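Example for tutorial group B:
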């Protein structure tokens, strides 16, 4: 399914999911997310994803409140202040959209952004990313003052690689993030409402969830437990270096 944030699809302005991902992104960093905007969120810049370190490093993805249109978006990996963000447009309100951001984090190079599998025109300027230890937050920032208004699902991040155009196309077509460059997959929150807190299939359960509700719809993404297999996540039983081991048990032939 999905998770709803804000007063329409969620519980209210304090809605936030705090993940366990608190690592400064590598120089090559990519993430993928499905989102549904109902509105622009608090201050016209409701955060889809945010691990900003209050003035330096960390990513921010939200509507561009400097423009205030339903389609204007911005992305930053260093504070996001005036003149320090990449800009692009999406399809506005009331539709599920898939986004891939491929970021050379430690540079001033603008990210490559794919919307629904297609490369977007990206403008603006961006500073080099800096260190952050803030946990990645979805649907708000860490102080719960910039709530997103809509629904989010299938958030995944890859550390150490830039996803390719074919990767972005596959993810937009509904392929599970588990099937795309699994060697570098650092976090994956399906956000399908199976429990609260939601499981991160790479890091264990989300650190915390405040508010939110189960979303009312979802995009057509391949189920993370497959059609013929059950994925048993040993989140709290087996962990190696903070990374969970996934055990597959096939029911074929039973």
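The residue assignment follows.
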């Amino acid at each position: 399914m999905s998770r709803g944030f804000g007063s329409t699809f969620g519980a209210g302005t304090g809605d936030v999911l705090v993940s366990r991902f608190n690592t400064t992104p590598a120089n090559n960093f990519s993430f993928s997310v499905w989102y549904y905007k109902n509105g622009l969120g608090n201050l016209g810049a409701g955060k889809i994803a945010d691990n900003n370190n209050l003035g330096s490093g960390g990513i921010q993805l939200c509507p561009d409140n400097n423009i205030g249109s339903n389609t204007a978006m911005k992305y930053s990996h260093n504070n996001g202040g005036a003149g320090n963000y990449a800009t692009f447009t999406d399809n506005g309100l009331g539709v599920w959209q898939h986004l891939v951001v491929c970021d050379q984090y430690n540079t001033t190079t603008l990210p490559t952004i794919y919307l629904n599998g297609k490369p977007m025109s990206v403008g603006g300027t961006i500073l080099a990313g800096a260190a952050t230890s803030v946990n990645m937050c979805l649907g708000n920032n860490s102080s719960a003052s910039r709530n997103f208004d809509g629904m989010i699902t299938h958030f995944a991040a890859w550390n150490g690689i830039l996803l390719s155009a074919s990767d972005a196309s596959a993810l937009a077509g509904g392929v599970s993030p588990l099937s795309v460059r699994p060697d570098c997959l650092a976090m994956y929150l399906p956000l399908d409402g199976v429990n609260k807190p939601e499981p991160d299939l790479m890091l264990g359960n989300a650190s915390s969830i405040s508010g939110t509700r189960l979303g009312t719809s979802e995009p057509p993404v391949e189920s993370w437990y497959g059609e013929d297999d059950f994925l048993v996540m040993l989140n709290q039983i087996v962990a190696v270096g903070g990374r969970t081991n996934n055990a597959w048990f096939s029911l074929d032939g039973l």
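Residues 226-254 have pLDDT under 50 and may be disordered. Compare this with the pattern of hydrophobic and polar residues in the output above.
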